[in-house]
Amino acid sequence: MAGDRTIGLRWRLVRSLFELLYRNRLLYWLASTIPFAGQWRTWQRLVLPRLRGKDVLEVGCGTGTLLADMAAAGYTCTAVDRSPAMLRATRARLRRLKIPPTRATVRAADVCHLPFADASFDAVVSTFPTEYIYDPAAAGEIARVLRPGGRLIVVLGAALLPARLALWPLVALQALVYGTAPGPTPAAAEPPGGVQTGRLGALYARVGMAGRDEHVRGPFWLALLFLGEKSASGAPGGLIH
Question: In a 10 Å sphere around its CB, with 0-12 CB exposed, 13-18 middle and 19+ buried, how is residue 101 labelled?
């Protein structure tokens, strides 16, 4: 019980920290770059080879880096975020890169109340989400806006591994901040499977989506993804492969 209380306190502090980061573009960039040895963008881009279809919704776009990647790869992208600072940063990035609105747009919205028609997207993506990914209302909305056969791609967490001496301080920092607590994390420490993927799979099965976990190993990191697929009928189906 004492351990559970410690974990709960740690994650309340972590959530408060990231709420602060989402309000400041510079702090967000620093926090997502330096502690993770510059691998944050590598982990984000794990989404790209797993996309399907043409129309993509990104839930929680941060500063718009992945949104720009997807648009450059030829997808028609829409992103939502609740943070005014992140929305401003994303719009500025799209203007700077001269990505037209026909290719990528962003708007203020809550994932629990998506302002889109049923079956609007071929894929929904989210990278390093906060606890909203476990919200039944969010799961229902994601399933609703996906087309039959559409895919949900979530980069749940990633961890640096102590493969190099220079990484040991960063690995120790991750363990100190994130520990092995359950729940979604910007970077889980030991291993990224600290997130509750069983709970996530069960949640999305209830809204007509089969799912599986995928571990991706890099030269000095390990990432955990969750892939969900909406069945043609909207009823729960078997695991995707």
Answer: exposed
